[in-house]
Design brief:
The protein is mainly α and 180 residues long. It is built from eight helices and no strands. The chain is globular and about 75 Å long.
Amino acid sequence: KFCIEFFITIFATLLHLSSVLLIPFLFLKKIFKRYIKLYNLLFFSIFIFYISGFISKFAYLFSNPLLSDFGFIFRALSVTEADGNYYVVGPTFLKALSIISPILIIEITKKYYTNYQKINLEPLTLFYKYISIITMLLSNLPYNDRILMIGWLFIPVMLSLPFYVIIKYMFLPLKLKVKN
């Protein structure tokens, strides 16, 4: 199964280079599943560092010295306006809300899922958290939300089960008796 996933990822990388983000996930997926509580702790702690702005303070350490010699090539990765960046970088409230809200909705409604539903939803949430962690760590680079858009693609699929549970157990708990 791993070889097939790896082959598909390599083929997808030939089509678009952003598929390279999947390769570390393929190797780390089993570790993430085995240590799910530690993975969740890592996700929430990085989210707290992201919201506090702690991560964005370190972007200047590796941006200017490494990329200054190649400014004409890496202009899209520059951090300061002097280097040609006019893109809003760093943590924003809307990005933080879009990162955490699907995870919180899934965690709140988790007790209503069957085991089969949990097993089917788990790989999507693992990948979404992985993409979100990468985005939060690269939050001070321009165009980092392009990486997050890969995770946003999975939000409708991830939230279909919680919304089904909400409708089933909260809005339609009454069984109406119909008279013949």
